[in-house]
Design goal:
- It contains 24 helices and 30 strands.
- The protein is an alpha+beta fold and 779 residues long.
- Among the domains are: 72 residues, Alpha-Beta Plaits; 71 residues, Alpha-Beta Plaits; 64 residues, Calcium-transporting ATPase, cytoplasmic transduction domain A (Distorted Sandwich), CATH 2.70.150.10; 120 residues, Rossmann fold; 113 residues, 3-Layer(aba) Sandwich (Calcium-transporting ATPase, cytoplasmic domain N).
- The strands form 6 sheets. The chain has a 7-stranded mixed β-sheet with strand order 18-30-29-28-19-26-27, with helices on both faces. The chain has a 6-stranded antiparallel β-sheet with strand order 10-9-11-17-12-15, with no helix packed on it. It has a 6-stranded antiparallel β-sheet with strand order 20-25-24-23-22-21.
- The longest helix is centred in the last third of the chain and has 36 residues.
- It is elongated, with a radius of gyration of 33 Å.
- Keywords: ATP-binding, Cell membrane, Membrane, Metal-binding, Nucleotide-binding, Translocase, Transmembrane, Transmembrane helix.
- Belongs to the cation transport ATPase (P-type) (TC 3.A.3) family. Type IB subfamily.
- This is Cadmium transporter.
- It comes from Propionigenium maris DSM 9537.
Amino acid sequence: MTIKKEYSIKNLHCAGCAAKLEGTLEGLEYVEEVSLNFLKKKLTLKTKRNDHRELLNDLNVVADRVEPGTKITEREEASPKREYTVKNLHCAGCASKVEGALEKSGYFNEVSLNFMKKKLSVRLAEGAPEGILEIINEIADRIEPGVEVVSEESGCCGGHDHSHDHSHDHDHDMGRKELIVLAIGIVVFIVGLLIGEEVKWLPLLMGAGYLIVGWDIIYRAFSNIKRGSFLDENFLMTIATFGAFAVGESTEAVGVMLFYKIGEYFQGRAVDSSRRSIENLMDIRPDYANVKTAEGVKRVDPSTVRVGDVIQVKAGEKLPLDGKIVKGRAALDTSALTGESIPRDVIEGDMVISGSLNKNGLLEVEVTKLFGDSTVSKILELVEEASSKKAKAEKFITKFARVYTPIVVGIAVLIAIVPSFIYGDFSTWLYRALIFLVISCPCALVVSIPLSFFSGIGVSSRRGILVKGGNYLEELNRVKTVVFDKTGTLTYGKFQVTEVRAEGISQEELLEVAAAAEKHSNHPIAQSIVEACGIDIPEKNIQDYKEIEGKGVAVFYRGEEILAGNEKLMKDYNIKYEKAENHGTVVYVAKNGKHLGAILIADKVKKDSAKAIEGLKKLGVECHMLTGDSRSVAEAVGGELGIENIHSELLPQEKADHLTRIKNETEGSVIFVGDGINDAPVLALSDIGVAMGGIGSDAAIEAADMVLMTDEPTKLVEAFDVAALTRKVVLQNIVLALGIKIGVMILGVGGHATMWEAIFADVGVALLAILNAVRIIKK
């Protein structure tokens, strides 16, 4: 039996190394499938081994051999999050130190200290002692005297932003020590440039500066050589700069190492900044819930709230859980969930979803779903899982990186040796070979391409389009046919009475009689009649309710026999009636054997369905409709929307057969868009299954590859736009990175490029590619 395992990756700082580790793990005989997400530091693999502890040990041996110091750890089950307010903390660097000390304490699985919001969030590790707040304060005061951590109930912050005295622009991976090292290196490099090459002790000064700046890279390079795994950026930079010293270019050696480290620093900042920007697009996770209790309102973690509890949501707060409004009215901002900019007005009795922002008013909401089953949890889980499903372009770059570096290193060796035998002047050709080594790191592609898809998924989520993987975003560019379900997809899925044709009585009387007959039915058509009637019919007036399968209902209302149903029901009771022509559903009504008239019911077409079909046609996409409805209804809807390919009166299995036939006749990929539980098999069968997330069933959403949160078909057209932009950026980055690298390589061999151009072709190009990928977020 195949088992899926997820692990966390620690101490992995290089995208190229991540690609190499992923490739090595793919080659293990006990690993069937592997995905290493460098951005999220997450490893997912499928294996038939069930010896979990031994498996983890073996994986760590492999990881340490490939990239020394890398650790693979179990992903802990998340314990409830605890929130605290931090006082007297005036420096972002100090906040980082406090956060690091708490992480190293071993008491927590997760620690996050937000300096701007003065907020500390932690998840306790198993076996954490009682009185954890006192322990937190002890650690914080030891690191930064005077800092005080208090529970949110006793703090004044309430989760809101607070002003701060000043902040230092210190950063994520590089602490204060690393920045000091860089500063020393810059000073040494500038002094070396000023004193000139004629000074005899210049090489000593440059050597000292070189060791200060690049010691960690040199150390890792030689550690890797001992393990027999050395074709990484550490080895390349070490050999290149050693070679520069060997040919008398000591200042250049220090400069290359220095600017390489600075470039890596800014590259890391760009990646983290873009990752935070994407995460901010989905800033919908609620921080707390205000639960009404006998003692008053209590602020708790949303995961501890039970179904049936009543929560209070004030203006400016997010709804932490799904529920039903029992008191109050407000305008809800659902833009973070659906991309809909217009607030939604809600009143008592309305259902509301978690992640919505209360713009005004005070609401009391009865919880209908646990936090783990809530809308916000499902959305965050879908987005989290999306990054593990890689597009073909991502997989190609990963494989490309594994062969690209060795090939370039091999060419560099040939450049250093072969021309030297032919033309002599070994030092010149060695220098040109070193340029090749500096250029050969593939990080520009390995980082920017996954980031491009990550950005595409993020911006889609902001628009209310959940894409479950970069592979589906890429696949959208190959779609040639979209197949739609009708009810709930192109139409609202809500039946409405469109016409009342009474014979011998008033329309109101006909509706009352029909509503009495349909009062006990849960069928949507029956409910539409009861709703149209608008009269509360007493239960005591209804007797002997009987549902006749496939035909209608029979009931006694005020002692008189009432029939409501289709033509078959009228024929069974030998009732003469006048056939009503309609593209929707017709309910015939009779009393005591006499026909009273007919009620016409139809499902309304969504206001943006026609626009969606038009948009898809402009993209060159062919549209089909599959439905279980009658031919006349299907053709009426299809004619209104401009869909020529209509297949009606289909059972679920027949839908699957038709989709298979359409796939066989289509050269590109095929999308199926549906909403109901009966659509789940067809969604799974299509190349890309798209579910309606607002009214769609859980089964359909689970089976789908994309979810449209607003139930608007036009969102599908927007998804095509995002996919096209993502592909454009990916291609741009490939051309940019390879074009500049190859160009500088050619110039280097011809003696027209130096190490400075080479370092730009490495870290400079990587930074440009990352910034280009981030453009998608602005879409």
